[in-house]
Amino acid sequence: MAAFLNISADLFKRKYIRRLDNRYALIEKRTSNGQYDCIFLKDKQCQVYSARPKQCRTYPWWDHLLASEESWKAAAQECEGIHETAPLWTYDEIVKKEKL
Fold first, then answer.
1. Mean pLDDT across the chain, nearest whole number?
2. What is the number of alpha carbons within 13 Å of residue 27 lying toward its C-beta?
């Protein structure tokens, strides 16, 4: 992501990374409705899409979003890719994309 943004890894870490428990995470920004979004999300679109990490490449196929219809519908309120006319993916296709 640092290379994509044309900055050093050190500057990227200082500007965009935070320590969360025993791991690192991208910082988030608070939205007008009190939610938190990724620092790289603007107008529901990722500004570093081609360089996004695995966690982002596998969204919205996260276990807690697939756990119930209610959680999936809640995610659909935030994700422009979740809608009735979105292409359907097989399980194998999802797993293949996760490994990218």
1. 87
2. 10
